[in-house]
Design goal:
By secondary structure, this protein is α+β, with helices and mostly antiparallel strands. The chain is built from eight helices and seven strands; from the N terminus they run H-E-E-E-H-E-H-H-E-H-E-E-H-H-H. The protein has a seven-stranded mixed sheet with strand order 3-2-1-4-7-6-5, with helices on both faces. The relative contact order is 0.14.
Length: 219
């Protein structure tokens, strides 16, 4: 894949985050890794306004911006640190999905409740509120980024990662759906999660095949 293709793919998933109401206004930021660089949304843009050439190219090792022009998202450090420490992360999606935020106002650990969530996302971690755009948030995220593909940021939003943009993006959709389902159920009574055995059953042998099948359905 060329950097041109990466830029176009970023536009595609950036538009999806807005269309699917995972972010409003100029909030949220997404990035993808490509050959030692990361391509990150510029600061001050709504994600669906970013044109292919406007994604900011940053050298992952040095942290230097290697193309001219726009300022990178204020969460540049969060993305940068996560790529440096986790070679398996190929893309990061940070959004402000309403049900996820609502969830963090009242709860911390999102239980695993249904098979798609277990196969596509697995566990979701929680980090308490820290001031956005600071290296405090970057440090808090990077500490857990290798342990789970989705992290709820208290009173703030969600970060998901994946081997590629598609995987990171769909994880955001699934976690938001999970938070929504949890909150609906919780309004009635204590939600019933999958048991550890039920989760492990999905996460074991069939996991990879099942995940691929789901992702193909989502095309
Ligand atoms: Zn944010």
């Amino acid at each position: 894949m060329s950097s041109t293709a990466i830029r176009e793919e970023l536009c595609k998933y950036a538009r999806k985050t807005v269309t699917n109401k995972l972010v409003v206004g100029p909030g949220g930021n997404i990035s993808a890794r490509h050959e030692g660089k990361m391509y990150l949304s510029p600061s001050g843009f709504a994600l669906d306004e970013v044109e292919p050439e406007q994604w900011v190219e940053v050298d992952i090792e040095s942290g230097e911006i290697t193309d001219i022009g726009l300022r990178p998202s204020s969460e540049v450090l969060m993305h940068l640190y996560a790529y440096r420490v986790n070679p398996n992360i190929g893309a990061i999606v940070h959004t402000h999905p309403p049900y996820c935020i609502a969830f963090t106002l009242v709860e911390r650990e999102l239980p695993i409740m249904f098979p798609d969530q277990a196969a596509l996302v697995g566990k979701t971690l929680y980090v308490p509120y820290v001031l956005p755009t600071t290296d405090k948030l970057a440090d808090a995220y990077v500490e857990v980024a290798g342990q789970a593909s989705s992290v709820l940021l208290g009173n703030h939003g969600l970060v998901t990662s994946g081997r590629n943009l598609r995987e990171a993006y769909y994880r955001t959709e699934v976690v938001e759906e999970s938070a929504k389902i949890y909150l609906i159920a919780k309004a009635i009574r204590e939600p019933k999660a999958l048991t550890k055995e039920e989760f492990e059953e999905i996460a074991s042998l069939e996991s990879e095949a099942y995940r691929i099948q789901l992702l193909q359905k989502m095309k």
